[in-house]
Queue: 2 jobs
Job 1
Amino acid sequence: MVVAIDDIERVTVIGAGQMGRGIAAVAALAGYEVVVNDIDEAQLEEAREDIKWSYGKSVENDAATQDEVDAAMERLSFMTNLEGAVADADFVTEAAVEQQSVKEDIFEDLDTAAPPEAILATNTSGLNITQLAEVTERPGQVLGTHWFNPPMLMDLVEVIMTEHTPDAVVETAETLVEDFDKTPIRCRKDVPSFIVNRLMRPYGEEPAWMVHRGEHSLREIDSAMKYGEEFPMGPFELADYTGAIQLRVEGAEDHLKDDRPLAYDTDVCPLLYQLYEKGRYGRKTDAGYYDYSDRDEPDIPVDAGQGFDPLLVWAPIVNEAAKMVQHGVATVEDVDTGAKLGGNWPKGPFEKADEVGADAILSRLTEVASRHENTDKMAETLPCSLLVEKAKRGETFY
């Protein structure tokens, strides 16, 4: 028997890092008894103080009352002993370091220590959840809950199914997320990077190829997308902020070994390798696409992108989104919700496609694909059949 939503009273969070403490704070404020577990006593004490600080900011911003946060602190407990932390847990969220082997070891321990009816979730941005499920004796009770940072402020949670996850379990997890006052979107297949991060990749990658080929400049593209299309950041500014250069280059080998469906091509743009080899990883190294040695923000003129067609960036994103719908990974609505809540985009890719027409997206996408000159990257960029059909029939996604 698997725990149902009405029976969930006690939530355990494994890992007291930034994500774990944020998830715990949200769950306790929503009225659940929460245990935070970590092997490091100092980390637990830091988590306690950090949660107090976060709750204080919530009161200052009128997001919660003092009585509510006082009650939430009473519902929180902190333990170094894993067995004790999960002994009475109904729902466990693992939020440890983002390493497959570490998480698999934790899930083996959780499977032994947690009640047999408990649901086990992992907070991961792209690791293989199916493999985590298969180290347990309860693979149908394991799923992913990808929270966005910081959990107290970000509204979105991706709920990820594996081939073992029944509808009843994912529905319980989604309802729990809603009880936490967050918005769940469902990733129906355990694909690399799930939904939001799959959209982020073409947002950063195609512009890198354009700069590498000398077709457009960094500032031209960033200005067009930031000021013209009203994204929070242009693709290069965002890459520097997130450290995407290092993540993409170092992650290429891992994707090559990954045999999950819809796995990414590992044809990384040479521009990223050139920056990586120079140690230009982004803001954290004072240089990435831009130089930050004497400034905190890149210099991106407002009018620099007036001659750039933003559909050259949008088209590969829409294509990636359409692939997800075509392959049953996500719905149109969930993809757009993910883009807006997880990426803070001004609109979702399908909303953009409906705004300009699928035929316009198809035209730009064909142009982008042709520039890759018969490489594997060209095949990856070619329009999927769903997008082609929408364009042929003049149909919208909504």
Job 2
Amino acid sequence: MRIFLRLSAMLAFFMAAPVLAQGTPEQREACESDAHRICDAYVPDAIAIEKCLRANVGSVSAACQRELGVAPSTGGGKKRKR
């Protein structure tokens, strides 16, 4: 009986893992268009898409950058000398 319970728990975990890897609804909403525009070759692999978006963070929308936890690019980047 214990083996059956353990196997059931493992099966439930592995069934839920792909759902957890897809991100929150906010992340999907903010990054879906960027994912298709920049990382279409990695669809439907959510982990590969996130790695691709992070690697191309300069081309990603500000909303997606916020959801990824990186500072949105301001476009400037260079400091002005006084």
